[in-house]
Q: What sequence folds into this?
């Protein structure tokens, strides 16, 4: 186990403070979670900011399936879910939220999707776990925990809202030789 | 559920899960169409061939918009002005399409079953955009999506389909999409425009025939009026258009026999004053324009779901 329920709670609380420290103008802030689980974390960050600062920032969720760069490789069409973004992102500081930062390809897709909604003043990235092994020049602004992993490992994030408990676990896998 | 179908020829053998997967994906596509930039990249670098051997503006434009919104390249081949008019066989047209390298062929044809013939002779994914009297699956799915968005769950909802059932691929595809979702269907219209077995009580599962439109509409949850082809009267199946309108035309008085707010739909183009009154066609219950918008989203959903087919994968 990498993170228990208390660790997850503390990480979210700390990131919520860091977000506000970095961009003090809450009126231009927006939080957008990447489905699925990034959207759950985004809602928790919004709630934490509301509790700390007594201000409600707009919350959205983004499904990046249509923007994946491996659609024609995987041999089937993954299910597309609806994105929910009912405010303008123009001139906002958008904090993208995801559970695990790995290759960076999901974040690339999310940024491509996001600019179809408008032109944010800045896009920042908050993740619960950064496990390394980037394949694109992308980094996170706010990180819950940095975890050294092997590329073949599996990092699984469980969140109460979808999985019934808060926990992050590392499942070590030997690389399957071809 | 993992999508495995390679072609969209008819929905008669689709599972409820498959229909639901299309409708759920359509919901996501409706959201894409509401964005400031109405474009997403999943079909980038793919070619969609629109092969319309029978005239159609709405369906063709709808498919074209759907393909372009998903970033595909679009090639149009219509019957008039093409080699089809010069006597080229369907087989030769298919071979040409194949050689052009289309990834998806969207086709409309006057002969029932033509898309099956094509699907067996090309590597491309084939989408049936209407074949003869047989099927128009994307219309059935967009009607199902529109009704589900308006009524919520379709279980135990009763929908009336009125008009020229026997010549209608729309009626057949509506039945195939709506019945698996739990709706029941009351068919209405002149007995001369009903398939003979259906007229005699042997209607498809989930449907019944009620020639009296007032009785059919009483307490219904929605109605779909079909386009009446004027040549049916010339063919002796109807005494006159006026009589048809008097007995089976949708009027304000008739549609108010349904539940309050029950929607009115029509696949278009409408003959206002024949199968539907102008007040009803443009009234508060009318979802006709919504059907057009949702049509683009349903076609995007299907084009997207076919992205996993082998040719698309290999190219």
A:
């Amino acid at each position: 186990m990498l993170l228990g329920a208390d660790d997850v709670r503390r990480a979210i609380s700390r990131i919520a403070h860091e977000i506000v420290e970095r961009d003090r103008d809450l009126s231009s802030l927006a939080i957008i979670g990447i489905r699925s689980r990034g959207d759950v974390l985004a809602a928790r960050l919004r709630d934490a900011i509301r509790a700390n600062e007594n201000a409600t920032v707009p919350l959205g969720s983004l499904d990046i399936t249509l923007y994946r760069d491996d659609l024609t490789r995987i041999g089937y069409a993954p299910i597309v879910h609806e994105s929910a973004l009912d405010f303008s992102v123009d001139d906002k500081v958008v904090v993208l939220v995801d559970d695990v930062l790995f290759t960076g390809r999901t974040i690339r897709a999310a940024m491509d999707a996001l600019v179809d909604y408008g032109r944010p003043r800045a896009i920042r990235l908050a993740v619960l776990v950064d496990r390394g092994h980037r394949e694109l020049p992308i980094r996170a602004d706010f990180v819950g925990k940095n975890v050294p992993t092997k590329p073949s490992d599996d990092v699984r994030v469980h969140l109460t809202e979808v999985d019934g408990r808060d926990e992050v676990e590392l499942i070590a896998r030997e690389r399957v030789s071809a | 559920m993992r999508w495995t179908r390679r072609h969209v020829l008819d929905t008669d053998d689709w599972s409820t899960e498959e229909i639901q997967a299309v409708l759920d994906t359509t919901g996501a596509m409706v959201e894409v169409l509401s964005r400031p930039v109405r474009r997403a990249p999943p079909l980038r670098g793919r070619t969609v061939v629109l092969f319309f051997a029978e005239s159609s503006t709405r369906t063709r434009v709808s498919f074209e918009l759907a393909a372009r919104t998903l970033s595909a390249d679009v090639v149009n081949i219509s019957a008039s002005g093409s080699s089809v008019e010069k006597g080229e066989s369907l087989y030769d047209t298919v071979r040409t399409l194949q050689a052009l390298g289309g990834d998806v062929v969207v086709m409309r044809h006057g002969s029932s079953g033509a898309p099956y013939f094509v699907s067996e002779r090309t590597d491309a994914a084939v989408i049936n955009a209407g074949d003869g009297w047989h099927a128009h699956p994307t219309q059935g799915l967009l009607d199902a999506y529109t009704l589900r968005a308006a009524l919520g769950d379709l279980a135990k909802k009763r929908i009336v389909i009125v008009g020229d059932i026997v010549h209608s691929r729309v009626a057949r595809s509506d039945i195939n999409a709506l019945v698996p979702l739990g709706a029941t269907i009351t068919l209405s219209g002149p007995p001369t425009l009903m398939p003979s077995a259906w007229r005699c009580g042997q209607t498809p599962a989930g449907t019944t025939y009620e020639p009296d439109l007032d009785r059919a509409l009483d307490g219904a949850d929605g109605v779909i009026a079909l386009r009446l082809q004027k040549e049916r009267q010339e063919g002796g199946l109807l005494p006159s258009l006026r009589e048809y309108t008097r007995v089976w035309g949708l009027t304000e008085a008739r549609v108010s026999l349904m539940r309050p707010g029950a929607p009115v739909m029509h696949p278009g183009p409408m003959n206002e004053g024949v199968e539907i009154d102008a007040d009803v066609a443009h009234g508060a219950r009318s979802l006709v324009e919504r059907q057009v918008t949702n049509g683009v989203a349903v076609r995007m959903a299907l084009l997207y779901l076919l992205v996993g087919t082998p040719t698309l994968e290999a190219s």
Remarks:
- The interface with chain A takes residues 1-4, 21, 24-25, 27-32, 35-37, 39-42, 70, 304-308, 312-313, 315 of chain B (CB under 8 Å).
